[in-house]
């Protein structure tokens, strides 16, 4: 089982090596880097290329490690014990009818190999990360209410992403293969754009990239990243524009710059000729 990129995802040689080694050794792969550099998209492209199903968790600050594995619905069981199960098919004496498995639980219980995506793990607190240490390394967790161990029937391909908003614990990092995705060079970005828009002429793409990297050189709070560039080029193509514009005349600037202060700063610098 090997991933070599797709027709929609440019895979650098270094990233390809670490991805395939993590797959072969069944180790979690932690991807960090600037937002919009393709960390999350990589997991979806692995699914598409290898014909696997995805189990996904978009992490939040309120997440606890246990609920990514399972949740025991005590309220529903209490309600059924008082008012009956009706035609729901649940049996109040069977606790398994009241267990709801999260993305980790579903990935472990699946008969086939799946891709498990834990997106933006840095949004969770250190306790949640610590709770996941042994779960991800051993491929197993305990249902505490019945002291039952759930072991992965087939270990999933685990992709974890981080935007580095919060430092991850050293024990968590030790259990992962780690890779920082640097921002693509102009040459790599040209290849990325060509994968998504192969019909665009090369001079048009080059002009788009010149404008894009000039924007990135400005002191914006949120400079445009790969995702914004692809949205912008897509908008230009949809409008059938022959030129991406320049200076204050850049069309659809709101697809590149998202923060109000950045848009105001751009308009100000365009008027004064600083862009």
Describe what this molecule looks like in 3D.
With 275 residues, the chain is α/β, with parallel strands linked by helices. It folds into two domains: 13-67 and 104-180, P-loop containing nucleotide triphosphate hydrolases (Rossmann fold, 3-Layer(aba) Sandwich); 186-271. It has helices at residues 13-25, 39-50, 65-69, 74-83, 103-109, 126-138, 170-174, 186-196, 202-216, 226-238, 260-271; strands spanning 29-32, 53-58, 70-72, 99-101, 114-119, 140-143, 148-151, 157-162, 177-180. The chain has a five-stranded parallel beta sheet, sandwiched between helices. A two-stranded antiparallel ribbon has the order 3-4. It has a two-stranded antiparallel ribbon with strand order 6-7. A hairpin with a 4-residue loop joins strand 6 and strand 7. Helix 8 (186-196) crosses helix 9.
Which word captures the global form? elongated
Total count of domains? 2
Q: How many beta strands in the DSSP annotation?
A: 9
Give the SSE order as H and E letters.
HEHEHEHEHEHEEEHEHHHH
Q: What Rg is obtained from the alpha carbons, in whole angstroms?
A: 23 Å
- What is CATH's topology name of the largest domain? Rossmann fold
State the helix count. Answer: 11
Question: In CATH, what is the class of the largest domain?
Answer: Alpha Beta
CATH superfamily of the largest domain: P-loop containing nucleotide triphosphate hydrolases
Mean pLDDT: 89
* Helicity range: 40-55%
